[in-house]
Design brief:
Rossmann fold, 52% helix, globular
Length: 190
């Protein structure tokens, strides 16, 4: 098992990052923090006027936006939450409790700035919007068809994967599931 204190697992919604992060955290005895929880906490401490990017999806819908516009809004929200992410990473680097931090709002440029030594990063990528839509249907059966959300997520995921590669960070697919955890561990073993 890789010698990391903090593992950053990024990727778009529905890509399989949570399904990989949870077993890795359990096996390592690490705390697991979902970036979405830090977003919610940050929203509770700010107003839309103070942090419009952070509140984007609470005050408006992605309906009518292109996938490029949704990606731009996702990136802006991710940048707004980076101070909270940095605080959590710093805290866990100073303790004996390892951490897996996973979420849609981990940007490759941010992760690259932390990666090395006791911090590792990996991005999970699922480019197939049809698979993403099926993932949403299985985990949110009452939500109905979510094709646009899946298409937006695939576009954001493609952007994240390209940026991760540009920053020298590993990118894996969650499928096939049989060896996904081992592939993730190999990707961050460096």
């Amino acid at each position: 098992m890789a010698n990391w204190r903090v593992l950053l697992v990024g990727g778009a919604s529905g890509s399989g990052k949570s399904s990989l992060a949870y077993p890795v955290a359990r096996a390592r005895g690490a705390a697991l923090v979902e970036v979405d929880d830090l977003v919610v906490a940050s929203q509770a401490l700010t107003t839309p006027a103070q942090q419009p990017a952070l509140h984007r999806w609470r005050t408006g819908s992605p309906d009518g936006l292109s996938s490029e516009e949704v990606t731009a809004a996702q990136v802006a929200l991710a940048r707004a939450v980076e101070p909270a992410l940095a605080a959590v990473i710093t805290n866990h680097r100073e303790t004996d409790l390892p951490l897996v931090l996973e979420g849609d709002y981990l940007l490759p440029a941010f992760c690259a700035g932390w990666t090395g030594g006791d911090v590792r990063s990996v991005f999970v990528h699922e480019p197939d919007a049809g698979l993403l839509e099926r993932n949403y249907a299985s985990r949110e059966p009452d939500a109905g068809a979510q094709r646009k959300r899946a298409e937006d997520s695939a576009h954001y995921g493609d952007w994240l994967a390209a940026e991760a590669r540009r920053h020298g960070l590993p990118v894996i697919t969650a499928r096939p599931w049989a060896d996904a955890v081992q592939r993730l561990e190999s990707a961050v073993a460096g």
